[in-house]
Specification:
single chain; mainly alpha; about 50% helix
């Protein structure tokens, strides 16, 4: 899709590119991301390379660093987008879905907490030989969700949650640097 955009536009400015990219390319890269979210560094790099190459196609952006291209376009890295998408899904689990239909892996604490009232109970991961080195949605999102401030986790609506988490994470190190420390556990940063 990114190549199709480049081939069909003789001149591609930042505004036009961003509209086309966000509409036509990024949905393919984020489809079902809570399920398949990569955790091996090589897979994270491969997916991010699509956005890296696409942003170089903008006239006048070819010599800029990836971080500078993202800053000028006001685009976050795909790592940051996956982290944000995961938190949106947990919010839906906490606020929208029928609690009796949730997986036993995603159970909320009964007692209120000092942090916020939608804390997820931390369970040990069971996935064969890897033990706690899992990329399961329920396991990888618990710590990040539980660390969110009360005004974000207890937002009244999904839209207010999105705007508050965007404001809270506007200086997140993964926003412009895809190879910064991911939000998942440090021991999951395998280079295989």
């Amino acid at each position: 899709m990114a190549g199709l955009i480049r081939r069909n536009f003789t001149y591609l400015d930042a505004r036009s590119f961003k509209t086309l990219y966000v509409t036509l390319v990024r949905p393919h890269l984020e489809y079902c991301q809570p399920v398949w979210s990569p955790f091996l560094r090589k897979h994270i790099n491969e997916i991010e390379k699509v956005q890296m190459r696409a942003t170089k196609n903008i006239d006048g952006f070819g010599e800029l660093t990836y971080e500078e291209r993202l800053r000028r376009l006001d685009l976050p890295t795909l790592v940051h987008r996956r982290k944000r998408g995961d938190m949106i899904e947990v919010y839906k689990h906490a606020r929208s879905y029928d609690k009796s239909a949730l997986s036993p892996s995603m159970q909320f604490r009964e007692r209120p907490s000092r942090k916020h009232n939608h804390q997820v109970m931390r369970r040990d991961a069971i996935d064969g030989l890897r033990g706690k080195l899992t990329n399961s949605f329920y396991y990888r999102t618990t710590a990040t969700w539980n660390d969110l401030p009360k005004h974000i986790a207890e937002s009244e609506s999904l839209n207010s949650f999105k705007s508050r988490i965007d404001e809270y994470w506007k200086n997140d190190e993964n926003r412009l640097q895809f190879n910064a420390k991911p939000y998942q556990h440090n021991d999951m940063n395998s280079t295989e």
